[in-house]
């Protein structure tokens, strides 16, 4: 129960009258739910309802006298969200947070020509509550009550005794519905209804890059509505866990910026997650959590087997495995009805790849070993396993991480275009003994690749080739991964690697991290 109490307070013009002429304000709690949850007297041992309060089972949360000047503040502070952390009554009183939005109305209708009121929420420990989602509740409640007061003097003309009447009932239903259902729809009169829903405050999504690959985590077809954004409707059919954001924009004939915004919107609400472009030249390695997860979890091993088995291949659009493999139908059977011996993929010799084999395949991935080389070493076991889904499963579950490659131009070559040599950052600490780097200045490699490049370059002008090289040079500062370079320039990783090995580029060091 996040909401501990709700109270309605106002400035009573009679509170500051004799016999207390020195008082300049008259804040007063009119209704509170539950009763006696807030002490209204200066003495913490007292209560707002006199002697009868001694029989109340409600434990007071705070004293109104300590926060009254902020709940009913001066007029200049009205119309602003105010968050308060009142001091605890005793050492055992749990911490609370008071959210309020005071409203001040000026009119000759009111005594002193103004009417100040406030509906406040008392929340539990802020460390365990999504506080931002309740701020909108306080604001909406304040604006609705302001409208009701301006229309019919709904609050100022209410003569009900404390903790009774329609305003008290409204606070009571609001607290009960929000705590139990996270939403409420409370009719106030024939024309007004209080509709409030708690929406969780989500963190800002990560930046979406053109080389990222979105993958659905939900069944998006059950959520799509014809009133959705047109760009969103166009790109959804091409989000399949294979296409990059830039490719999705091209296939959907949509603007790249709008496509990135739509993907970011889906990412914000947790409908997708972002992966790297799958490539056979990519390198993956087990994370530190590998030994404590799938290696010791037989259920995750079965889940992985169902997800990667080519016998249960899904349709064109697939979903990520988050809390279980998505349902895929084959021969009228679902994953839920498969027996243990049916879910394991078969090797090339017809033997099942059990949980131990699944773990062994993950463990064989390591630094310096590409997916192509990993497949060559384990071709028999991978005969009926979808490699892309296998890698995707490991990344989603946190079993694998991608080892990206970055290029640094440490010495200017014969290429005449691009920045001067002095504009490139020299890296004296990058020695040839580092196992994660590759120096591409070997004379034999340059000659062979140079010939291949020119044999393939029929139909391309020398100027086009030089222009592409000049654009590649802009990315050779060690901060741009190969996925980014290939996507931005529209070239393959193989072509990029061959160009980096050419003499025109100079000395280029590739670092894997």
UniProtKB/TrEMBL annotation:
This is Nitrogen permease regulator 2. It holds the Pfam family NPR2. The lineage of its organism: Eukaryota, Fungi, Dikarya, Ascomycota, Pezizomycotina. Belongs to the NPR2 family. The chain crosses the membrane at residues 266-284. Residues 12-34, 433-463 are annotated as: Disordered. It comes from Cladophialophora psammophila CBS 110553. It comes from the Eukaryota. Residues 447-459 have a biased composition (Basic residues). One of its GO terms (cellular component) is vacuolar membrane. GO terms for molecular function: GTPase activator activity. Residues 435-446 have a biased composition (Basic and acidic residues). One of its GO terms (biological process) is negative regulation of TORC1 signaling. Keywords: Membrane, Transmembrane, Transmembrane helix. PANTHER family: GATOR COMPLEX PROTEIN NPRL2 (PTHR12991:SF10), NITROGEN PERMEASE REGULATOR 2/TUMOR SUPPRESSOR CANDIDATE 4 (PTHR12991).
